[in-house]
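Hey,
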Amino acid sequence: MYVRRGTNGYKNKFAFDDKVTISILLVAFLTALGVILLILTRPPIISPLPDSGYSFSVSAMEPTPSPKNPSKTEIIAYIAKVWEKEGVYEQAHAISCFVSESGLRADAYNFNSNGTSDFGIAQLNSIHNLPDEVVYDPYKNIDYAFKLYKRRGWQPWYGSGCD
């Protein structure tokens, strides 16, 4: 880079005649262009679960309920119905447990450090050799959770609301 005098008489230190300066600017421009292209062409996020028929929503609002994607109100009502004979305390305990486990999301899943996975509203563990309909159907997931609860109590669940 050389220094030349401008028309105002001051030295101009930003002459772009130098090959190194031009190379640095070119690399910076191409890097920025590459980042922009990467952001614009990134692939969609893919769930590790096979297509389950659930409709997912990225908005803060709850998606429109469907048989495979019930609203949280419908889920709470169904949990209360299934646990009805156990009494009000156990109904509330089940709802609290499943809220802490999955947020009552039918599409919730978790990969555990021991190589197993938890699925659905009740976060049922894959160690139970769950059939697909129990994994993907929120009502069958809750029904299976109730059968597991009848055999083992709250022992299979570790969420903060399951104590």
